[in-house]
Amino acid sequence: MISARLAGMAGGAASIAAVAAVAGITAVRRRVGPPVPDTGRREDFESMEFDRGCVVASGDGVPLAVREVGPLEAPLTVVFVHGYCLRMECWHYQRRELARRWGDDVRMVFYDQRGHGRSGDVSPDECDIARLGIDLADVIRAVAPRGPLVLVGHSMGGMSVLAATRQFPDAVAERVVGVALMSTTAAGLARTGLGRNLQNPAVDAFRLAVRTAPGAVQFGRGVVRGVIAPVLRAASFGTEVSPALEAFAEQMIHDTSVVTMVNFLQALELHDELEALPVIADTATLVLCGDDDWVIPFDKSEQLADALPHAEMVRVRRAGHLVQLEFPDEVNDALDRLVQRARDGRVRAEPTRRTVG
């Protein structure tokens, strides 16, 4: 029954929705001008694999791949949490430049969220934002059990950070001195951004198949990937970027299991971490987003900043969803300011609103 339903949608709703969504997004992004220099071809986007690494077992047994840069006894640890259909290498430019700026004063921790990158696959029941917050706490307990922390989350990673702070408020009060929320939101996306663009019966049917009819899953993989992946690719960047960088972003999306794609999509649509905002209200915070973000619209970041009295709000002109890859200098500068505030004990940001890019 489910297989037939998926088959019937393969040539209809799925392809129509994917083409329409990509056409709508891509048409806005096309720019006339000379080819963009392929500066990204000089980048080794996989260089993080040579950093100090380990595997942390989450509380429910999922292995989480972790990489670290900087001394184990550094006075401050910054933990980076990646977003939906990405992996820790999306922080490539931050790892390289901020390690140079911060030197031995900061330890940087990166990890792949469950179902992503080198971390373990998960069942549908293990794909929710609250569980991602517990994973973040597990990583911190394993590799950074002492000292002050700055938490940096992009997209779904920002939701993970909020979920962790909501569930472990005492740890926030004792250890968290800074929080960066990039291209993210505290509440669901069912009617805006990614949720709106991916409202499609093929996705819903595949989700049902994963749970109730495993035999239908293999057939539906191509259908659902054809709906979700093109939208994510088209929404990644707001400007023309290096072909090598574009290929790297596309590869991260392609490498993500379609089961992960579908099951975490529902988590993104339904999550609500508004209760986390009072927990970090007295913490130095950064809210950053591109104003051409089609996955999580810029107004979601404005709402976050309005709810956080000590937030520096950074608007990156023309940036798409992968702002840390598209405008790394602007993101690095903003994170550097946050870390300096955290190290100096300055909670309030001045000025509180910036437009860059």
TrEMBL record:
<dbReference type="InterPro" id="IPR000073">
    <property type="entry name" value="AB_hydrolase_1"/>
</dbReference>
<dbReference type="InterPro" id="IPR050228">
    <property type="entry name" value="Carboxylesterase_BioH"/>
</dbReference>
<dbReference type="Pfam" id="PF12697">
    <property type="entry name" value="Abhydrolase_6"/>
</dbReference>
<protein>
    <submittedName>
        <fullName>Pimeloyl-ACP methyl ester carboxylesterase</fullName>
    </submittedName>
</protein>
<dbReference type="InterPro" id="IPR029058">
    <property type="entry name" value="AB_hydrolase_fold"/>
</dbReference>
<feature type="domain" description="AB hydrolase-1">
    <location>
        <begin position="78"/>
        <end position="334"/>
    </location>
</feature>
